[in-house]
Amino acid sequence: MGAQKSIHAGKAKIDVNVDFTHKLCASLMLPPPRNTSSPLSLVIGSLCIKHPNLFGGSEKLDVSWDKGLYDSNVLVAYRRPRPEWLSQQCFVIQHSLSPEVGVHGVPIDNFSRSGSGGVNLSRLSLGLDISEPISSKWSNTTSLKFEHVRPVNDDWRSITRDLDGFPVTCSGSNHDSMVVLKQESRYAKANDRSFSRFSMQIEQGIPVLSKWLIFNRFKFVASKGVKLGPAFLLTSLTGGSIVGDMAPYQAFAIGGLGSVRGYGEGAVGSGRSCLVANTELTFPLNNTLEGAVFMDCGTDLGSGRLVPGNPALRQGKPGSGAGLGYGLRYRSPFGSLQLDCAINAFQQKTLYFGITNLAS
Q1: Is the CB of residue 126 less than 8 Å from the CB of residue 92?
Q2: In terms of CB atoms within 10 Å, which end of the chain has fewer, N or C?
């Protein structure tokens, strides 16, 4: 239930995608948008402009705009041609506007959903991404970026404190600024019966000015998939921690799709550290339909009280939680459909519905 269109203008290519499927699903599960005075507030879609030879020397320019019911993201990327054996460089400018629900959201319906906490984030970043040549199993990316983060309320006005009167920035002003050096390494290995993946991200805040944030943040994701006869078992472990200067919005949010199903986004907890484990077993029911059972669990390792303002305690988040569930996976010529039902520790059920690779 969407529309896609590609337009060629000289050497440039313009892709337009308006998605009504996610709009329909979101309208059934989420409250109405905050501002419906503009027709654009009800549109979900994306616009992408690609130019493969900007200045005649194979320079590539990508401009994309993604808009959801509550968020938007604009990305401009410029790449210069370099030999394959050298690191690839990409200059990036990005601006995003999105609700900060994971930390400041209010758990509702027995922690199965998270409502708005009145805090949204306007982020502007610009810098350089450097991708190292890919080895047989490892890949590495280094980036150096300046970031400017400005919290705003639901009316998109700058704020310095949340609804309970606690600061929402580390600096105490209406914005935080930082220069971040980020290193990301990825490992992947696969054969006919199994695969292994591992990724590690390390971020270092560089003290260019005295009021800019100084911190070290790391996050890892390890996953393993194994065939068990006709079934397939997938397990993953995610963890991370941050030391040094910290704004509340930098906390690790635990709960939600991709974390602990059965809970709303961040409804389990938010802390300086986190650990999340996921296990899912899928098995064929026929040629196009698969069944699934899964279990997710996560904890903030007791670090919720170390987040400035202790938003997790104020919202009554438990700090740890587990979710069990089952689901169906249906493969069709038009895309893959996924339906999951998860139950959290408070016996509250949550349905998740997803569509991927939807044809136009």
Answers
A1: yes
A2: C
